[in-house]
Task: structure prediction
Amino acid sequence: MSEHSRSMSEGQTQGTGNPALRFHLVVPATIREAWVQASSFLAASGVDDAAHHAELLLRHELEMERAAYLVALPDALPEAVNGRFEEAISRRAAGEPTQYIIGWQHFYGLPFEVTPDVLIPRPETELLVEAVIAEAARLWPEEAPLEVADVGTGSGAIACTLAHLRSAWRVMAGDISPAALRVAERNAERLGVASRLSWLQGDLLAPFAGRGLDILVSNPPYIPAGDLAGLMREVRDYEPRTALDGGADGLDPYRRLVAMLPLLGAAPRLIGFEVGQGQAHAVAALLKSAGYGSKLVIVPDLAGIERHVIGVR
Result:
C-alpha cells in the first residue's frame, strides 16, 4: 500500500462531524502532481467533475488566475500551501461545496461572495435576469427610473446584477435572513452598485408594504419538503434550508407572494419568478389569476427545463 493510499483512511473531515477520508499529499510534488492526486481523491470520494474542483481549490490556495496556473504546472508546489490545500480537498470530499470553501461564485460574469448563509447562485438564474431585462425593454425605455424589488435576495446576485446592467433602476432587495442581507450588502459595495440598492429585512413582500413597484423578481424556495432528503449532499447538508424548502408541493412561496401583492402601494407591471421542475404552468396560473395574463412567458433553461415564468399586467 502506498503512502497516499494509507493516508486516505485516516481521520475525519472538519466541518461536518461525519466520518470521511482525509486527503494527504505525497510530497514533494509539483503543482500538476498535486492536482492529479487531489483529482483522484475527489473522484474516489464521489465528487462529480473532480478535476475541475481540484483545480479551483488549488488555484485558490495558490492565488493564481488560470493562465498563470497553467504556466506554473511544472513548478514545485510551495510548501506553505500544502496544509491548506489538503484541508480544502478534505472538506470538498466530505461534501462541502467548493464555492463555500473558496468563498466566491461568479454570476453573470460578476464575482459574488458566498457563505453558508446564502444559496449559491446558479447559472440558470442568469436566464431569469436576461428574461426580465428583455421584457422590461419592451415595456419601458432603457433610461426609465424603474422601481424594482428582488424578493429573497440571498447573496444579492439578482439585485446587484440588475443594478449593474440598468443604472437608472432603483433596486430594493429583501430577505428574511439578516445574515444573508449582510452578505448581499458586501457584494453590492464590492461591485460598485450600493448607491442604487436598498435592503429590507422581512418575510417575502411584508417589508415592501405600501411601496409602488414596476418590477418584482424572485427566486424563492421551491423544493418540495419531501424531496429535500434526496438532494445532492452538497445542497442538502450545506445550503440554507430556508432558501430551499418550498412546502409540501414546492409552491407555497408563490401562493404567498401572489396573495401578498395587495400589500404593495402599486402592483408591479412585470413579475419574474424562477421555478422548480414541473412547476411552471402552476405558477403561470397563479399569476394569471392575479391579473398577469396580458402576457405570460415560460423560459426554459439550458437543459430544456421550464425554469422561469414572466407575467405582464
Summary: Residues 31 and 77 are 5 Å apart (CA to CA). The first helix runs from residue 3 to 7. Residues 1-19 have pLDDT under 50 and may be disordered.
